[in-house]
Amino acid sequence: MRDLAGDANFLTPAALIGDQTRARILLALLDDRALPMTMLAAESGVAPSTVSSHLSQLVEGGLLTVRSQGRHRYYSLASTEVAAALEALARLAPPFTPRSLRSGTRARSLRLARTCYDHLAGHLGVSVMRALIDRKVLTGGDGVHDLDRSVRDRLSAPGWDLTYEVTELGWTVLAEVGVEPPRTDRPLVRYCVDWTEQRHHLAGAVGAALLERLLEIGWVVRVRGSRVIQVPDKGAQGLREWLGVEMEDLRTRAAV
Q1: What pTM, to 2 d.p., does this model score?
Q2: Domain that holds residue 20
Q3: What is the sign, positive or negative, of the torsion defined by CA atoms of 114, 214, 176, 164?
Q4: Which tens digits make up the pLDDT trace of 84-94?
């Protein structure tokens, strides 16, 4: 941990995130994709000439990385720590008051299902995690964030207090939808404390592999230019049959 009275100059990232245009850029990239400047300009609602300056500041400030592919430059979040900081700020922000039907619908959609970097979050992510624990796929915790017992865990941030593992039975259950043990040096199972509700959602290599597989088989669909995840009828049926997750119940909860 850095000494806040010493070398942790949080004013620099705070100033970068605090600008409305730059905040919109960062939120547009919170689903772990790399996007070109033209799409980020549309997402932030400013001209490409204006967004270019903001992107340069974010890259120089260490919040974004950029890589060239052909004639285009693609921007993405610099690290999982940046994603975690944005999720934490979302929890600290005042309650969102929709100014239009469209914005109200988007807020409900984010509560229902969204990406948190490269894994599922929101009511859907929490429910999947809970179902995996109930089916003995995961062991090591109960999926609940307990304020009285937490040591390092905080709302809207990666979890540290518990160590979840996939059981032998768990790999069999995950294989039912085509998720195999990832070959990676990355931790297999991590978790985040979801800001939608005080429970855990699945992160780590297994969380990323599960989201990727659900996208491949069409059980979930990304909404272009957004972190929102939609679940078509095919996915709702699949999640019900596989884990007992009821999308209608989740949609009702998200609407409250």
Answers
A1: 0.65
A2: 11-78
A3: negative
A4: 888 888 777 66
